[in-house]
NADH-quinone oxidoreductase subunit F
Amino acid sequence: MTMAPEYGGTSRPEVGGTTSPEKLLAPVLSAFWDDPKSWTLETYERHEGYRGLRKALAMAPDDLIAYVKDSGLRGRGGAGFPTGMKWQFIPQGDGKPHYLVVNADESEPGTCKDIPLLFANPHSLIEGMVIACYAIRSNHAFIYLRGEVVPVLRRLHEAVREAYAAGYLGKNVLGSGLDLELTVHAGAGAYICGEETALLDSLEGRRGQPRLRPPFPAVAGLYACPTVVNNVESIASVPAILNRGKDWFKSMGSEKSPGFTLYSLSGHVSGPGQYEAPLGITLRQLLDMSGGMRPGHRLKFWTPGGSSTPILTDEHLDVPLDYEGVAGAGSMLGTKALQCFDETTCVVRAVTRWTEFYAHESCGKCTPCREGTYWLVQLLRDIEAGRGLMSDLDKLNDIADNINGKSFCALGDGAASPIFSSLQYFRDEYEQHITGRGCPLDPAKTTAWADKHVEVSA
């Protein structure tokens, strides 16, 4: 038996023309992850650490905000909202304390970029936080970290201690007049606390549930004061922009999605890991760099931004992985968690497991999400086990439609996305589960999907 082309496309264009695959990468945040003790202040300073902060402190806060805004940096947490614009929303001269909160509650299935970044290079985040606090005139910042990652928590505490000892935190930072306290807070393992307002409630000691907006956090956030909530990678990208210049940053990526970012490649691939590259690289190029799918197998479906984004197929290998490109393909760039699944994976089983996660992690505050995710799980389990009816497919679509855009926060939208997209691309596989009374990819049954995509030699 010989397999069809490894990635599933009909053509294999050269990666970047004559450019070698390695030159497509842009190691900035990950430039020295493999150095001995990369997480220490000494290593960070040896790699131009805290130079961006010194340049930022020489600017007026409003000019600093404008500079970050002009760089085109967009939030790396999923939504892609311009970072400088978020800072600009903080009202000035209101007489209230201002807060910066960094969302490090990375908990979505398949998403793993902020945790490795904090483990290997925590000072990039701390430097970015000092810059951001100076810009928004804040004297107290918080890092809300996923509580299960105890080794990261320890390294982060040590990095904060080093920063205090070196004068980058505390009273009169580098003689600038800025006083800044930084608090590291470990969460208790709730996915819903990745939603920014649920995170704020949790940080205040309440049950983590999304808040009604308006008012937005920029007006009434932590302790009812103006608050900026940013993703780890968003803030950690700021020092390099200040140090090397906004034009350098804009020279990478695309016009509307400039700069570098971390792509998390996982699943049935030969070389899983973090790949830092300019926005706009394609999955085909990343697979070429990483050794492709595991030997003898081909890509079936993948997520561009974690399990909460609509799945894509082998037809989308050449979609630019920036905000506009992925949106044009009918999905979202999200957290850039590229989970790749080969032809041995049952789509129904994968979607069922994701939906079980969302049903378990729903905070229960709103009816569409609380009830909808429960019933999606019941239907999907029946279909996966071969007990489903054809009418269940329309019922799945209908329930997902009643969740999407109607729940209190984006968790409901994330739960609906795999349902819609899997029915769009793999409805035949759902039908085979129903007509065949079980999974067609079960070794005891015929592998219907694979039969259509495998060339059998004599």
Notes: Confidence is low (pLDDT under 50) at residues 1-19, 446-458. Residues 347-452 form a domain with the de novo design (two linked rop proteins) fold (CATH 1.20.1440.230).
